[in-house]
Fold:
Amino acid sequence: MSSSDDNRIARQAAEWFALLLDDNATPQDLQRFRNWLDQDAAHVRAYARIEQLWGEAGVVPVLSHQSVSRRKLLKTGGAAVVLSAAGFGAYRMIRPAADYSTGTGEVASFDLPDRSRLRLSTATAVSLEFNAESRRLHLFGGEAFFEVAADNRPFTVTAGKLRATALGTAFCASATDTQAEIVVLEHVVRVETGARSVRIGAGQAVSSVGGRLSDIHAVDTETRLSWLQGRLVFISTPLSAVVKELEKWRRGRIIVTDEELGRRPVTLIFDVSRAEFIPDLLRQGISARVETWTPWLTLIRPL
Amino acid sequence: MLATGMDRTQQSDVFGVFLTIRSRLAGLIFSRVRDYSVTADLVQDTFLRLWERKSALRDVSDLAGYFLITGRNLASDHERRSRLAPVIADIAQLEHIADPHPSAEQFVAGRQELARLQQVIDAMPARARQVFVLSRIDGLTYVEIGRQLGISPKTVFSHMVVALERLQAGMQAG
Structure:
């Protein structure tokens, strides 16, 4: 197709879009519009493109206020790692042995002897072993965020089969029975499992499932670590995954009865200090039937 | 040296403002679409759009205003698409436009694309730009725009066509 054809089609698409924008289109206009669309697939593409650009332009003015101070945090030179480890059952067993722990729905932060800072998410247990040569921590289960103070001794966290060594850094670790994950907020962390060793940087994560190390992947750390802000943020996350995460924060089961519903991506935000209202928030936030049968059982069903 | 905690960032602004205006936003959207389920979807879409751009929103003083504008724009897009749906619903490539529950993802442009979009809009002829912004951002009709700019609705339409042509040309791949 020649560029003059392209220009002509672009102009026609613009005319149609501008005409239909203003609610004064007659049934005859709509019929002519339809005829025009049917004439050529290029017409459909051109119209769809304008529709897309129009949608994007709906929030464009924010860009004129662009901030140069984007993610100041990342320039401060600290680093963060997330490690997630064992399941709830195991956690209850080991909790008495842990130096630092939280119950369901709790978050807490602690200053460690080396002036590093430890922040625990819900149902998390961490033990500590510091000596003259090393700083070792073990995450039994849950999720912990470490802001590591500079020190000559290495700072190492084990979670499941992963061992994360902060290289002057802040990071987060999480662990369940079957999976452990390290998320790095700043700087670099060395993660080892078995004989493998990888270095991951800010905004990256790596996990191990059944002892196998995943590829290094990018994460939106602000969303992933939103619990540090006292909230849980899910962006276009399958409902079943959201529910799985929410169950960590609240006693009682939440069951999605329908697989297709479970796969539906949802965007939701919860205040972790109000975990008891999770069913109410779900009710407001998703197009589904949310039924609280007892304080211990909530069912989510298709409408 | 201790790392700075995430709590020093401004992330909370977008979320905090969203919470404070959430019911107003829902009311505004509902007054247009008259459907609770669509309203719930559009409230989430509105949040998602601003959340995806939160780093660009750090210095914005009137976040609440952006939420309300964006929500209203999404509601009016929804209305317009509902009007067109009977005409285009069976065209595969336009299905997502006719869909009464559009997912926000289809509009989530990358930051660079948005920056480019802003440049293209800035570079439009002055009248075309005014018309485009009054329509897209302020949600005015051609009659209202014409009154404000002292031109006829038909002239407003012509400027809009120019604006949309520039938009397509400026945003072509490359």
